[in-house]
Specification:
Blueprint: H1 19-22, H2 26-48, H3 59-85, H4 92-111, H5 115-139, H6 146-165, H7 177-204, H8 215-234, H9 239-259, H10 268-292, H11 299-325, H12 335-357, H13 362-389
């Protein structure tokens, strides 16, 4: 279980190599991804306010799912897979090429939909899937065979959405935006099931009170979530889809309840991850309610619970944890990091909960949510820039 994030590899380049040659993928992708997350939301809200005109109405949603989240997935998987497979990590010029491809895709997306944009946005994810699949296949790590297929599914969703932005509709039902988000949520649920219990046990030992894994619950919770992806596409607004969403949400509530204890909520580095998983379960439940009770729950609430809530919280928590742990620093939340965690939590609450409980105009809540989101991820980029761009203080590679 611990192999998910223990990433130091004996075959890595020596610490005497230049940082750009020896640095693991989390360094450039985490920093660029956080900067992109802050910039996209700021630019989108400025467009809504009429201050400038950037992108079409769907640009920010596509860029958050396939640009921001794509960068974080790349940083995490390209750092973790070498440990899973005892293989050499992607570093130096090869990693630089992948980073340049990601940057080119972001510039193309900013300029607008088109064939070049589609090729670059989906091409980056296809390249990432290949970089992840090859070492897993060579090592015959069957437990991880599904990971590159999830990335491939994300690449397919990106291609379909980019084509739709050009006005090109594929035969059959249109692919809802929710599908891409659910692919990311599935990967988060798989990784969360590995790391959250392990992190809690590592920090608190027996005091965490985490029972052994229940295989039936693992299969059912992940299986229903996986089934929700094609169902969202093929069975829109049906009773069956609503039931699948609700079942997935309830199963993930039960999954989280087995890992959770009072202790984990006292440790900020754990609490933000557990809060993100709670948002994941809540988002799935809200998705079910939005189908079964559309007059009471808007579909956008479910989507933003999964994106601003689950993705925002879990990603920021993992950014801080991995950035500190794998640069040889103590895994603790300093005062600035705690403020970042509070900011991303406020952003999700303002985006999802506040519209339900306050008469404040929606555009004001939207602006406040954007400000707190930008503070969270822009603040991460500022606070962790030195950590991510300088060698480890212990002199080791990575």
């Amino acid at each position: 279980m611990s192999e998910v994030l223990q990433i130091t590899d004996p075959k890595m380049p020596s610490a005497t190599s230049a940082l750009w040659r020896a640095a693991l993928a989390f360094r450039p992708f985490f920093l660029l991804g956080a900067m992109h997350a802050a910039a996209v939301v700021a630019m989108w809200v400025g467009t809504l306010a009429g201050w400038w005109a950037i992108g079409d109405m769907g640009w920010h949603a596509r860029e958050m799912t396939y640009g921001f989240v794509g960068a974080i997935i790349a940083g995490f998987l390209l750092t973790a897979v070498p440990k899973w497979t005892a293989s050499r990590p992607l570093v130096g010029p090869k990693l630089a090429i992948l980073v340049v491809l990601w940057c080119a895709a972001r510039v193309a997306a900013l300029l607008g939909p088109g064939w070049v944009t589609t090729a670059l946005v989906s091409g980056f994810l296809l390249a990432l899937a290949a970089c992840v699949a090859m070492p897993i296949a060579r090592a015959r790590k069957r437990r991880n065979y599904g990971v590159p297929f999830v990335v491939l599914a994300l690449a397919a969703c990106a291609a379909v959405e980019q084509l739709a932005a050009q006005g090109i509709a594929l035969p059959g039902p249109g692919l809802p935006r929710m599908c891409g988000a659910l692919v990311v949520v599935l990967l988060m649920a798989v990784v969360g099931g590995r790391v959250l219990p392990f992190f809690a046990r590592s920090r608190f030992g027996d005091a965490a009170r985490i029972p052994p894994s229940w295989p039936a619950l693992e299969w059912l919770s992940l299986g229903t979530l996986a089934a929700a992806i094609p169902a969202t596409w093929l069975l829109p607004n049906t009773l069956a889809l609503g039931v699948i969403y609700l079942a997935a949400g309830l199963l993930h509530v039960l999954r989280l309840a087995r890992w959770s204890s009072r202790a984990v909520w006292t440790e900020p580095m754990l609490a933000i991850l557990f809060a993100g998983y709670a948002w994941l379960a809540a988002g799935l439940a809200l998705a079910g309610l939005s189908v079964l009770w559309p007059a009471g729950v808007a579909p956008t609430l479910a989507l933003h619970a999964l994106t601003a809530g689950a993705m925002g919280s879990m990603i920021l928590g993992m950014l801080a944890r991995v950035s500190r742990g794998h640069t040889g620093r103590e895994i603790v939340a300093d005062p600035v990091t705690r403020v970042l965690f509070v900011s991303v939590t406020l952003s999700a609450l303002l985006r999802v909960v506040a519209p339900l409980v306050t008469p404040t105009p929606y555009l004001i809540l939207l602006a406040l949510s954007a400000v707190t989101w930008t503070l969270a991820f822009g603040g991460f980029a500022i606070r962790y820039a030195v950590i991510l761009t300088t060698p480890r203080p212990d002199g080791r590679a990575g």
